[in-house]
Amino acid sequence: MPFSPTRRSTPACSPNCSRAARSRARRASRSPVAAFNRISNYDAAISDYLSALQPDGTASEFPAQSNGRFVKLQDLRYGENPHQAAAFYRDLHPAPGSLVTARQLQGKELSYNNIADADAAWECVKSFDAPACVIVKHANPCGVAVGATPVEAYAKAWKTDPTSAFGGIVAFNRPLDADCVRQIGENKQFVEVLIAPAVTDEARALLAAKANLRVLEIPLDAVQRDGATAWTRGRNAHDVKRVGSGLLIQSADNHELARAELKVVTQRQPTAQQIDDLLFAWTVAKYVKSNAIVFCADGMTLGVGAGQMSRVDSARIAGIKAANASLSLAGSAVASDAFFPFRDGLDVVIDAGASCVIQPGGSLRDDEVIAAADERGIAMVFTGVRHFRH
Predict the structure, then answer these.
(1) How far, in Å, CA of 238 to CA of 250, rounded?
(2) In principle, which of 87, 131, 175, 235 could form an S-S bond with 198, CB 3.0–4.6 Å?
(3) In whole angstroms, how large is the CA radius of gyration of the chain?
(4) 111 with 167: CB under 8 angstroms?
(5) Cα separation of 354 and 259, whole Å?
(6) What are 264's strand-pairing partners?
């Protein structure tokens, strides 16, 4: 029978074959499969290039045909739910400091949900220059903080929402040391995955007592914070979302807000400390599922409202979270990932204690919302950038 790319290129072996027979089949197929994969990658690269060419000679960011090239890292026990099959793949050329470059130092095999949540935590914590800690549960940050040391950052992040942090992913952007491990133990926090650029020998010795705890080491030495491309900065250039028989491909949300981009729209001017708090809150809100409302102060989250269909409800939930953690919102800064369509959401965060707000602006009712901020005596800044996350 002639070769067809839609047929298996491995020797036939039924599910009833012996383990030895299956092993022989895999060995026999390894060399030709590698050759076909190399040729396939070459052909796909040419197809991507030629498909992107425009009549004027320029290249489109999105070619007429998209050829994904990924390498399987491992099969997973199951997917998002036990009835779903799953596997973990990496880019052909992964970016430095990305999750797929991790080395697992100990613990059980990573699950599908572990990997998804670990990526959310890792991408968020990499956004900070100061020592930072991010705790993620169900793809949302439930505690984020910066501090003079990693252990200080962790202690502050933990305070935000100890209940949600149970069974979460904890990520650091500095080496994980023994002080952090001891603090996690003192908090009696059950952790699914710990992630850091490095783990000290003393920390590893302490972690060894928790054999099931997954510990990932992801060096950041090769990441260039001011690199010319998303890849050199350790970020994806594009994001992909599967829809029925299709893909949505977009440039990744790699925008990092600068102070110079802020536009003060209220009579009250924010103080330097408020600007710091607003920028911190804005960075966190970028990684919270929409609709996102984030209360912050002094380099830590105080309340996070995530994933609600109504922005008002997200604002209320963030306030409830802070109250449950016995955290005061008086004088806090608030970030909203998208504009307030009405003044009601703004009133909710001000009633809770917010003294300043950062949001994209761009609503048809911006004037009404700005007038409400002036009426309530708070400072508000617009970014001109939205951070929807679905």
Answers:
(1) 5
(2) 175
(3) 24
(4) no
(5) 20
(6) 381
Sign of the CA dihedral with 169 first, then 133, 275, and 234 last: negative
Give CA angle at 146 (354, 386), nearest 5°: 55
Give residue 19's pLDDT band: very low, low, confident or very high (50, 70, 90).
low
> b vs e for 298-322, b when ≥16 Cβ sit within 10 Å of the residue's Cβ?
bbbbbbbbbbbeebbbbbbbbbebb
Express as a percent the part of the chain with pLDDT over 70. 92
Is the Cα dihedral 177, 180, 185, 189 positive or negative?
A: negative
Given this model, what pLDDT does residue 32 score? 83
Nearest to 156, CA basis, from 324, 296, 319: 296
Q: What is the pLDDT of residue 34?
A: 83
Q: What number of CA atoms fall less than 13 Å from residue 86's CA on the CB side? A: 17
42 forms beta bridges with: none
Pairing of strands 132-137, 168-172: antiparallel
Q: What is the pLDDT of residues 21-71, one digit of tens each?
A: 556 555 545 678 888 888 888 899 999 999 999 999 999 999 999 998 999
Can you tell me whether residue 133 is helix, strand or coil?
strand
Give the dihedral sign, CA 366/350/263/281: negative
